[in-house]
Specification:
heterodimer, A: mainly beta, four-stranded antiparallel beta sheet, globular, B: 255 residues, alpha/beta, nine-stranded mixed beta sheet, ubiquinone (chain B), Methyltransf_11 (chain B)
């Protein structure tokens, strides 16, 4: 993802801003990292350049 | 809520498995409806395509020169397919009913032939109103049910049997009511029929022999009203084609 996507995206739960923590970046694209809600603290992964902003109850690793 | 969430997870998983088939699908990739939808959003600066699937709508918006296009889907595989296939499309994995998008964050929201999978389409419409700027527009296309409740029930029975992730196709009037309730003004409504080849339509969901036979039997044995409305064509006892009803709505938040 490009950093300017941060202007649009937010926490899906409470709609607050997210903090970006970059683990790796290539050609202006954040490839891996974490997005953390500035209010509730929920974290969302950036995997292979794509932020996964599904609410925690819809993420694959979370048991139904 | 839990039932909804489980349902959405299952839907996302089934679409992930079908990602390549959707990219090749004529129903989703071609047609004047896609042109219409892109035309109505061509002057947007930042567009969000909800339930982007293989990204056809997001790609069409980028082609029309919308500077910033975000394709969102609950299936990570679908988002990957969309961003790989279309230049100028940024991908986000997310839930249509709990959008990870800031208030007033975009000036166009699109959603094409997907809302019949949503457990709570009204929540999606409210979220679209929230994320749109005051001068923004929502353009939704979906399969719709006819006003006659019996014919609507027939349609939804066929669709659910073919595709368990089908929740419901709603009437045009139901859509307009949801849009108005969320503060939108419905500016335009385009209605049309799309003729579907039965074999291709069944294959899109990888129907096995028994389910396929049940769906075909329901269509073959439909009463005269259903046969007429859905233009069910048979030859030598096989269903050749039928038509489904679609509508595109353009809604704005302006007074």
């Amino acid at each position: 993802m490009k950093r300017d996507l941060m202007d649009i995206i937010c926490c899906p739960l409470d709609k607050h801003d997210l903090d970006l923590d970059v683990e790796s970046e290539e050609d202006d694209e954040v490839v891996a990292g974490t997005l953390t809600c500035t209010d509730c603290g929920e974290t969302y992964p950036i995997e292979d350049g794509i932020p996964n902003l599904l609410p925690p109850d819809m993420r694959e690793e979370t048991p139904a | 809520m839990t039932d909804h969430t489980d349902r959405k997870r299952e839907t996302a998983a089934s679409f992930g498995a079908a990602a390549d088939a959707y990219l090749e699908s004529d129903v989703h990739g071609e047609g004047r409806d896609l042109e219409t939808l892109a035309d109505w959003c061509a002057d947007a600066t930042t567009a969000l395509d909800v339930a982007t699937g293989a990204g056809h709508t997001a790609g069409a918006l980028a082609d029309r020169g919308v500077p910033e296009v975000v394709g969102l889907d609950a299936s990570p595989e679908m988002v990957r397919t969309a961003t790989d296939a279309f230049d100028g499309v940024a991908g986000v994995v997310g839930d249509a009913e709990r959008l990870p998008v800031a208030d007033d964050g975009v000036d166009a929201v699109t959603c094409r032939i997907a809302a019949h999978h949503f457990p709570d389409p009204e929540a999606f419409v409210a979220e679209a109103a929230r994320v749109l700027t005051a001068d923004g527009r929502l353009v939704v296309e979906d399969n719709v049910a006819p006003p006659d409740p019996d014919l609507g029930a027939f349609l939804n029975r066929v669709e659910r049997l073919r595709d368990p992730s089908h929740v419901e196709s709603y009437t045009v009037e139901q859509w307009r009511e949801w849009l108005r309730d969320a503060g939108f003004t419905v500016e335009r409504t385009a209605r049309f029929k799309k003729t579907l080849d039965f074999d291709a339509w069944a294959a899109a969901q990888s129907l096995d022999g028994e389910t396929r036979e049940r769906v075909e039997t329901i269509l073959r044995e439909a009463d005269a009203d259903a046969r007429d409305l859905f233009e069910i064509e048979t030859r030598d006892g096989d269903v050749e084609s039928f038509a489904n009803l679609k509508a595109i709505f353009e809604a704005t938040l302006s007074e």
